[in-house]
Amino acid sequence: MNGAIRLWDVGTGQMLGALLRVSKFAPVVSVAFSPGGSLIVSSSQDQSIRLWDADSGQSLGVVLRDDYYYGGPVAFSPDGSYIVYCIDDTVQILAMLAQVIPAAMIWSPQILIP
Question: For residue 68, what are the domain limits?
Fold first, then answer.
């Protein structure tokens, strides 16, 4: 409700220390963990898709900002090399071109279904 993503330990039911703030005014619509669990991707009604470090809770940056995107389902590919999202009845793919240094990630949008 307040634009935050909270991480919970499902075994204990306790909230973990990481608190990710996306926006004060735009709700988070969807989140997904990478296959290895080290990254989180979120989509929000603030017209963005963001990447997060799951351990520290720190933002690694906005990987998509689009005037026509108001959040929706988001997911990682099984190997973690792509982020998939939907916009206007079209599946879109963001390809991670560099994974070694998160601060230097470059993204390339590709259309899967025209």
Answer: 4-111
Dist CA 65 CA 76 (whole Å): 18
Give the C-alpha separation, 45 to 22, whole Å.
Answer: 10
Phi then psi dihedrals of residue 39, to 5 deg:
-125, 150
Report the C-alpha gap between 91 and 99 in whole angstroms. Answer: 23
CATH code for the domain in which residue 96 is found: 2.130.10.10
pTM for the complete prediction? 0.73
- pLDDT one-digit tens code per residue, 24-51: 777 888 899 999 999 999 888 888 888 8
Residue with more model confidence, 49 or 94: 49
